[in-house]
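Task 17 of the worksheet. Students: predict the tertiary structure of the chain below and write it out as structure tokens. Keep your answer in the requested format; marks are given for formatting as well as content.
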Amino acid sequence: MLIAGPARRRFIHNPNLRSVRVHYEAIPKDHPTLPAAEHALEKIVRVLVQLNGCRASIVPCLHRAERGLQDLPVVLHATLLDVEVLEMLHLMNSAIPVHLYIGDPLTTGTPFDAYSPEKLVIPSELRPGDPIFCASTERVTVFTAYLHLPDDGALYGLTAGQAVVPQAGFLPHPHLLPRPDKHQRRMRSSQLALQPLGCPLSNPAVQIVERAIELMAVQRAMLSAATSPAGSDGATNERHAARKRQHDLERVILQDSLARPHEYDVGQACAAEALIRPCNSSSHGGSATRPAPRGKDKECDHTHLLSWALMRMSSKACDNAVTLRAHPGRLECGTAVAMQVNDPNLERPLGPYRDGVVNGAPASVVLGGYVAREWAVFPAAGKGVRFAVRGDAGALVTAVGREGERDGGTSTPVAILYAIPERGPYGLVTSLTTIMRRIRDVTGLQLRFQGSWWRDGYG
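Model answer:
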């Protein structure tokens, strides 16, 4: 539900209403109203960045109020964590309607205490899109994909950095921090990236299995209480008895697995980052209406967020789909993309397959006094109200081939989903070309998504 604000230019979501059924769509990069929307966005960001501890994510997009409309209005979708910001709305005058939602603008991995193990199973192998657990940080993310060295049998894996980095958020890059004392050495970003060396990862985690067993015991007691006295309803009692037998069998399997917790292990993280980094590119994939400043003498006024974790796989190893290309492609505005998440966690009300479109303008993320301009992916038209939800961090985003990813055509890996606004319809992604380049700089590994057996015609 949206509540109209002053001058009917602002719309504030009631945070007491958990469900959000408002449709938003990606805006084309050549939309005639986009320059005005980005100008209004800049004015709002200038106010928010001056607030201590402000966390916000704002993106231009299209608002679909009714089905069948052709000319959709352009709005600014804003997600802010602090309710106190509402007192400063009078400073955020905008010629473009602003739809304001109260929630966390950067939800990443799922904490163990928020993870629902109701449908937990012990998998025999780890597939891209499956959940991956880190007992050190007690967070759950999605396993992105496998990575190969062309001339080596070593197998690596990729996921979001929030799986293993100690802090839950994003730390500033060393170049953004004040210059330390001349006698104090500043740790390089490559040294920071190698700190998670040896951090174990599993599928599932021991704590999650124990909670699943406790939950199954409660459900078993509820089934016993629901069973009618003998002779009252034979068909119902038979169904309850069958469900109790199934519960008992699944519970025994989980209890037996606790005697061999080493079988949960899938690998160890060897490098990871979750950073706010300076923008050092003359073209960072933003809107075509606002070219990036050129020239080394002009400092960029924004940053970027970077989140990735590289792991050395040890067991339960599988591989990527045979239709996945070996090298990442370029992420571009308007690209049709797809994503798959296999975790049945109840926190994900969406289906396992997602279709989306890369927004024509980047999202502006205000975080700790920094402004980051990030890629945003909206759900494809007619494909629901959200592209991703909390807990999907780490999922692989692929560009759909000509024949369609679902129909056996090849697909190109283009990005990793690393954060989702709590009440936003879109997900924030990082280009895989950026991540693979960073992995090469930190570890020296030239990795690809397929092994040496992959046919050159598809590589």
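Marker's comment: The chain has five helices and 22 strands. The longest strand covers residues 265-278.
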